[in-house]
Amino acid sequence: MKMSKKRLAIIGVVIVIIVAIGMYPVFSKKLLRSSDPNTLTIYALAYNGKLNYDIEAIVNGFKQKYPNIKLNIVKFNLDGGGYEKYNEKILSDTLAGGGPDIIYFNPEETNARAFQKSGMLEDLKPYIEKDKDFNKEDYNSKLLNAGMYKGKLTFIPTDYCIPSYITTKELLDKNNIKITENISQNDFMQSLSGYISNAKSSNGKTLFAKSLNIGDFIASSGFECVDYENKKMYFDTKEFKDIMENYKKIYNSTPKPATSESGEEGLQGIKNRSTLFSTDQSYTCGVEFFESESTIKGLTGQTQVINSFPTYNGGNKTIAIAEDLIGMSKTTLNKKAAYDFIKIALSEKIQCDNRGYTPPINKKSQIDIKNKYLNEEVGKNDKENKVILNKLSDDFNKYYDRVTNNIDEVRILDTNVDKLIKECMTPYFENKSSYDSALKTLENKVKLYINE
């Protein structure tokens, strides 16, 4: 389910919910749920008929362990607009009381809050508590319980990312920038003020090589803008204003979103010294994560610095963003089988197999993936970048230990709210509106959204 992460319109979600609930009697017969209790229905992304790598590993693992349970797999082909259809159907069909038994989705594409508010997700907490074979010590408790809503565990992340950046010691030294371990967001931005004042399109200098997602930046601060359970907003606060002021500085010293990106803008920017920070996902939390140090050293001769964005209050806290989420429909006919499928998805072996993103939430898998790089990749020649892959430095090991073993908070993004913040605050970022005017517009729109 790993694709680019930026869609979902609020109006679309509202229409889907209204239509799904209002039209249920009309089209319930057409929903694709099997009536056989020994069959689990799963919606899955596919390419040329072949299951996407993440769901394929889970399906194969489940079939091997539970051969008596049939899987009714409804495929949505990526090469035929299936990604959008998948995200739409998994929500609308579930809200209508049908759809798949297993709810597996990306919260940046399908609205997690709509699932939770609907009451259509089974509470996973009792299953875990009664399961003597499920070792909760294999998971960070904050990650395992990220899907709690009104006392119920509605879903569990299968993986997560840390909003983070890459730079080099040489770039920081050259620009006289000192970033301490416990630095706050305000102090972090203050330390960059000299660089920002010189970062102009006319001289080709940028703070970040490509635009920074406003939702990721707010999440990394540790500040909660909305209390969904109590329908409260916290926009009219000093914290939010400071965060917006800081983002405005980034917004005006960083390129605007491009229609197409290579995914290596940051790497190239560091290589030619035109940028200070890279947020290339493949290197900060993706397939090139463990290779990032060797790539930076091999292509630039510089020493990589990788770190998470500082929180608003500082203190070296680690904020994670949940990626894919998995749960089960409350109406599934075989809840034990559905729970077993979720257990397979969270197991050590499956969390290691064919993984394109790191880290998974299983602690053993986190160690396995790192050891696989050390045992199988170190010393080899990376043919794409033509560099030798080296052992991980002490600094990198320290960082990896922190972002896997010391997660302080977990955020589930609501791209609807993020889009509203971007839409309403951009006039302020571009000096076309006052802060108070932009804030008032934002509060009015978010108030309508959370009270729908």
From TrEMBL:
Pfam families linked to this entry: SBP_bac_8
Family annotation (InterPro entries): Bact_solute-bd_prot1, SBP
Name recorded for this polypeptide: Sugar-binding periplasmic protein
SUPFAM superfamilies: Periplasmic binding protein-like II
Domain of life of the native organism: Bacteria
